[in-house]
Structures are given as structure tokens and as C-alpha cells.
Design brief:
By secondary structure, this protein is mainly alpha-helical. 77% of the residues lie in helices and 0% in strands. GO terms for molecular function: double-stranded DNA binding. Keywords: DNA-binding, Sporulation.
Length: 90
């Protein structure tokens, strides 16, 4: 059973077209990761699927591009939910 935050993650991922089930979500994230690697110029280093030689700074750049889309939208939704609850309370 998914936690409420996990459910929110998949809801946001669905809204972004990333996928609402685990398999589709993971497949699309992998595609996005490769796309980000191309954008920052490290695709040749990771095209075989091995990221062990990629500096952490570059991995962070890739992760930031992926997590930013999902995480940023999750934060927006959480803030909206909190605002709704506060309005109901006061």
C-alpha cells in the first residue's frame, strides 16, 4: 500500500505525463535521465547505463532536472492543501 506522499508523487507524475504506475514511472524517469545527460553533455559517459565514472556534481545536475519537475509540483500541491486546511480552520 502506498503512503499518502507516494500517492501524491504518482498523482503529480501523472499530471506531468510521467506515469501513474510504478513501471511506466520508472521507464519514463530513465528516459528523462538520458535526455538530461544529453542536455548537459555527459551522454557518451553514460550511454551504456554505467554512471560510476560520472562526477557527483554532474549526477546532481541530472537529478536536479528530474526531481525539480516532480518535487516542485509536489511542494506546490502540498502548499495548496495546507492553505485549504488553514482557510477551513480560520
Amino acid at each position: 500500500m502506498k503512503s499518502p506522499l507516494e500517492k501524491l508523487k504518482y498523482e503529480v507524475a501523472g499530471e506531468l505525463g510521467i506515469g501513474t504506475d510504478d513501471t511506466t514511472y520508472r521507464q519514463n524517469l530513465e528516459k528523462m535521465k538520458i535526455e538530461a545527460a544529453r542536455e548537459i553533455g555527459i551522454y557518451d559517459q553514460v550511454k551504456d547505463g554505467y554512471w560510476g565514472e560520472v562526477p557527483s556534481r554532474e549526477c546532481g545536475r541530472v537529478g536536479g532536472r528530474l526531481g525539480g519537475k516532480i518535487g516542485g509540483n509536489m511542494v506546490k500541491k502540498l502548499i495548496a492543501l495546507a492553505e485549504q486546511q488553514l482557510q477551513q480552520k480560520w
